[in-house]
């Protein structure tokens, strides 16, 4: 049975959501931007009039205004973005029960079946595109292929509101001439390395000896060689199936540079509470705690610590993360962002040996306290209860990392 994979990409999703109830914005340049007060003042999305004037996703606001003086900037409505994302995913589920989201505005759909062909997949894509436009007012670009890599490339070929097919019959004419940077997971630094050895297009990448690519890029070179050939053997899970979680983490750009130990404590408490809460939601415990730090020059360093026990408790995670910080931060270099991740996971809920040792008894009390906080926040909202420490700096303490990162893309590999 041949595979038929669709990749659906909502056009300018954040900006389009903002224009749904404000049609007067559809024909003027609009950019959805983060909050400059929280140092997230970059363009998250732009509509087509803004794109035509050179506004790009990721630009800081002042750069975008230089290119487009009449640019209108609006804040993202995350609640409406999530609501419409859910509506559109429910539309996708009418066509298949194998839908793999990639963030809030993209998804792969596996419509493979005994009698399914690429041509039938194209018809499904067009039907789905019309359904989304009629029911939500938003437009969709869809790529159709026999693998996820080429399907995603296809959804970028024609925008907005279009369907593109990449198959054996048209690969040489459509896919091979594309710049190598269009391929999934190839960023500017990798493009420069590939260009340096004469690889400029997807076709040239496919023709390059995989061992040469491995020598140039390590294991990533082998992965990209496979992508250039459309190698994608991983099966897509049915909607609602629970993927294997290998790590749980969050990071945040602080409202102002982290300059003191107190600043670091506040930031880490929020991150560790968020990570621990998500571990408990998944029914998981972890043993390895990783701390990441990014300075003002955007240089990132990471450090890990392995615990003597598994945990889903914010107190344990904070102790490990803060210990790493004290070991590896000089206390003078301003930190722009921090992240905490827990890995080497296992299922929680196993029998725990009761202990009268002071440290174990304290750990059990802290775990019970975390569960009580979970219950309060579940019923009354995240800010219904906070540690007193978080009130000592309102700008740092007001960040809810779990909500801030609810829109992050989901991993490509499950």
**Which outline best applies?**
globular
Average pLDDT rating: 86
User: What is the number of helices?
Assistant: 16
Beta-strand content: 15-25%
State the separation between the terminal residues, measured CA to CA.
Answer: 22 Å
Name the helix and strand elements from N-terminus to C-terminus, one letter apiece: EHEEHHEHEEHEHEHHHHHEHEEHEEHHH
How would a textbook summarize the main sheet? Answer: 5 strands, mixed
- Percent of residues in helices: 40-55%
- The counted number of beta strands is 13
Class derived from helix and strand content: alpha+beta
**Uncertain runs with pLDDT below 50, 5 residues or more?**
405-414
**Cα-based radius of gyration, to the nearest Å:** 24 Å
Strand order, sheet with most strands: 5-6-1-7-8
Write up what this structure looks like.
With 414 residues, the chain is an alpha+beta fold. It is built from 16 helices and 13 strands. The protein has helices at 13-20, 48-52, 61-67, 78-92, 118-136, 148-155, 171-174, 188-196, 202-207, 210-217, 219-228, 261-282, 314-328, 358-380, 394-397, 401-404; strands spanning 5-10, 30-33, 43-46, 72-74, 99-101, 106-110, 140-145, 163-165, 247-258, 284-295, 300-311, 335-343, 346-347. A five-stranded mixed beta sheet has the order 5-6-1-7-8. Strands 9, 10, 11, 12 and 13 form a five-stranded antiparallel beta sheet that branches. Strands 3-2-4 form a three-stranded mixed beta sheet. A hairpin with a 4-residue loop joins strand 10 (284-295) and strand 11 (300-311). Helix 12 (261-282) packs antiparallel against helix 13. The radius of gyration is 24 Å and the shape is globular. Residues 405-414 have low confidence and may be disordered.
């Amino acid at each position: 049975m041949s595979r038929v994979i669709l990749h659906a990409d909502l056009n300018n999703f954040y900006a389009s959501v903002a224009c749904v109830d404000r049609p007067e914005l559809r024909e003027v340049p609009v950019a959805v931007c983060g909050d400059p007060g929280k140092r997230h003042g970059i363009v998250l999305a732009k509509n087509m009039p803004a794109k035509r004037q050179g506004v790009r996703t990721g630009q800081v606001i002042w750069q975008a205004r230089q290119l487009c003086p009449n640019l209108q900037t609006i804040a993202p409505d995350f609640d409406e973005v999530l609501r419409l994302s859910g509506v559109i995913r429910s539309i996708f589920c009418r066509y298949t029960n194998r839908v793999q989201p990639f963030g809030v505005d993209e998804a792969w759909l596996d419509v493979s079946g005994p009698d399914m062909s690429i041509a039938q997949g194209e018809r499904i894509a067009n039907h789905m595109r019309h359904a989304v436009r009629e029911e939500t007012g938003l437009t969709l670009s869809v790529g159709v292929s026999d693998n996820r890599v080429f399907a995603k490339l296809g959804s970028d070929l024609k925008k907005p509101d279009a369907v593109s097919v990449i198959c054996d019959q048209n690969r040489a004419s459509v896919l091979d001439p594309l710049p190598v940077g269009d391929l999934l997971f190839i960023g500017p630094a990798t493009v420069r390395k590939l260009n340096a050895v004469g690889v400029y297009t997807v076709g040239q990448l496919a023709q390059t000896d995989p061992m040469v690519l491995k020598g140039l890029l390590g294991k990533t070179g082998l992965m990209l060689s496979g992508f250039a050939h459309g190698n994608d053997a991983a099966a897509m899970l049915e909607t609602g199936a629970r993927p294997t979680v290998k790590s749980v983490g969050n990071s945040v750009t602080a409202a102002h540079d982290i300059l003191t130990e107190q600043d670091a404590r506040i930031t880490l408490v929020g991150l560790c509470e968020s990570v621990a809460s998500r571990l408990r939601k998944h029914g998981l415990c972890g043993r390895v705690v990783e701390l990441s730090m990014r300075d003002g020059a955007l240089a990132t360093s990471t450090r890990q610590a392995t615990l003597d026990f598994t945990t889903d408790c914010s107190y344990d995670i904070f102790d490990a993360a803060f210990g790493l910080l004290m070991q590896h931060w000089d206390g003078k270099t301003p930190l722009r962002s921090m992240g905490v991740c827990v890995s080497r996971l296992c299922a929680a809920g196993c029998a725990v040996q009761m202990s009268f040792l002071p440290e174990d008894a304290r750990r059990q009390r802290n775990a019970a306290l975390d569960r009580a906080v979970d219950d309060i926040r579940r019923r009354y909202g995240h800010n219904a209860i906070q540690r007193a420490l978080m009130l000592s700096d309102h700008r740092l303490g007001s960040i809810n990392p779990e909500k801030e990162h609810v829109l992050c893309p989901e991993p490509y590999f499950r």
